[in-house]
Every structure is written in structure tokens, then in C-alpha cells.
Amino acid sequence: MSVIINEICLENGIIQPVITQLSETKHVQWDVLRLDLIHPIISGNKFFKLRLYVEEALRSKQKGILTLGGAYSNHILATAYAGKKAGLSTVGIIRGEEPVHWSQTLIDARDYGMQLIFTEREKYSEIKGQAQNPFLADFPGFIFVPEGGFSQMGMMGAAGIHDRIPGDQYDWIICACGTGTMMAGLVQGASGEQQVLGIPVLKNYQGMESDIRSLLGPEKQERAFVINHDYHFGRYAKLNHVLTGFMNDFFHETSIPTDFVYTGKLMFAIRDLLLKDFFIPGSRILAIHSGGLQGNRSLKKGILDF
Ligand SMILES: *Cc1c(COP(=O)(O)O)cnc(C)c1O
Questions:
Q1: What is the pLDDT, as a whole number, of residue 1?
Q2: How far is the CA of 25 from the centre of ligand 1 (A)?
Q3: Whole-model pTM?
Q4: What are phi and psi of 289, to 5 degrees?
Q5: What digits encode the pLDDT tens for the residues 195-243?
Q6: Residue 176 CB less than 6 A away from ligand 1
Q7: At residue 2, does pLDDT exceed 70?
Q8: Residues 114, 3: Cα–Cα separation, whole Å
Q9: How far apart are CA 201 and CA 243, in angstroms?
Q10: Which residues 6+ apart lie within 8 Å of 302 measured at CB?
Q11: Is 292 in the pocket of ligand 1 (CB under 6 A)?
């Protein structure tokens, strides 16, 4: 894989065993792919989903990348930073009016050179699904990356996560899902017997299965995968003391930090599914730590022990 952003260190994305009393009692091997460690800012899956876009923009000598996302979006921050490092301009269409107090994510994205355009929610939801984003007209020479990188290109980039996973060593590959782009890539690249399980963090995202399927290649259209909608904790980015208490316990037990939007809910789900004997004894499961730790900066100090 060519690495266009030379700070990315894929070798740091190690597989770490999670040995808890529970996984031992249930005779399940629980490992975590630490994609959070490949880079502090373009962390986890965001590098994989963006890399083909960055390569394409450089190859076809485009000026920059235009994309969209929310005020706390890991995708916005990663795009801003990747653009800066690759020598591309970036524009971020941000959901909602300009806030009085900018999130640290927005401040950083601006500091990395991204031009931010605040867009009222109604207009944002109207344009976000359009293949030809209307803002592109103002930015000739920019390529468009859909929200969260949801596209075939984003999916193909995410399929590259399999390069970090030894093919025959896992029965289950489990990830958190926002748009489902990463999961689609994991399904696309999974080996024959491997099952892929996704944990959506959005409430009632019932269209997710067909959205994921729409990204898969023709040869993978019939491929089975599993989605469990029980672990969104009320809605996107909602948290409570059960979740943060779990994240602290998980950190003390494994030394793995998680974020409250995605990977905290993912690990919580895996523990709960272990408790419910969802995985048969002898199963080997790999959780994808997709990064996103920067998002914890929006929490009050003291809630998390890390
Ligand atoms: C963006 C993100 C996801 C969701 O990825 P999708 O491809 O949109 O499903 C999961 N985990 C983390 C940490 C993220 O930042």
C-alpha cells in the first residue's frame, strides 16, 4: 500500500490481546486491532477511507478536497490534516450555523488550513446526499468526498484494513458503524468463513444494511453480515455513566483508551454479547479500534480516567 502521508505509521497498528476474566470464562479469544495508534490525528479508519481520495487528487493534480460533516467530526479533522500534509487545500461544509463557541475539532481543522462553511441543518441534510455537491461550483479543481467517506472509493480504502489482519486467525471481525463505510470495506475484504458484525452508533439506522450492500462489489452482493442495533445508548454521541464507567474499567483492565461516540460503545457491546453467550466457546474475535479519541476532548474533565 502506498502511503501518501508519511507520518502514518501502519506498523503501530498492532493486534493487542484483551484478556479479561470474562473472555477467559467464556473461552473466547478477544483481540483488538489498534488502528488508533497509526496516527494521533488521522486516526483509525479515517486514514483508510481517505487514502484513495488523496491519491486520486494528487495523481490528477487537483487543487483540493471538499467534504462535509458535523462540528465534532473525526472525518472533518482527518481531512483537514491529511490535506495539509499532502499539499491539498481543504473545504469543510459544516452541519449547523456557526456556533458561538467553536469545538476544539473546528478550531484544529481551521488551524490545519481548512476553509469552513457553516450551513443550516435543513440545507445540510438536503445537500448531503446529492452526488454533485452544489458547493463544488465555487471550488473548481476540488474533488468531493461524501460525508464520512461513504462511497465505493471510501469502502475500497477501508477494505485495506484487511492488510493488517492475519487472514485465517479470526472468526469474527467487529466494528462500530457511523455511515457503515468501514464495515462495507471489512465485508468486502473478509475471507470465506469470517463473519463481520457491526455495531451502529446511530439510533434506528434501519437503512444501514442496504446502504452497506450498495457499496459492495458485484461479487459480494450475497455476502452475509450481521448488524446489532442494541448499543447506541439512546442516540448518536449520547453517553451516560454506565458507558463512561465501562470505558474507565476497560481502560484499567486492558490499558486501551476508547472514545465515547464509537469505540466505547463497541467494546461495551462485545462485553455484553460475551455475557449473553452470543459467541460460541472457542471463537476468535477481533475488534477494530477505529480511533476517534480526539472526540473525548468535548467531555468535561474528570469523567474519564485517561
Ligand atoms: C468515523 C468513525 C467510525 C465510523 O465509520 P463509518 O465508516 O462511517 O461507519 C467509527 N469509529 C470511529 C472512531 C470513527 O471516527
A1: 44
A2: 30
A3: 0.97
A4: -80, 100
A5: 999 999 999 999 999 999 999 999 999 999 999 999 999 999 999 999 9
A6: yes
A7: no
A8: 22
A9: 13
A10: none
A11: yes
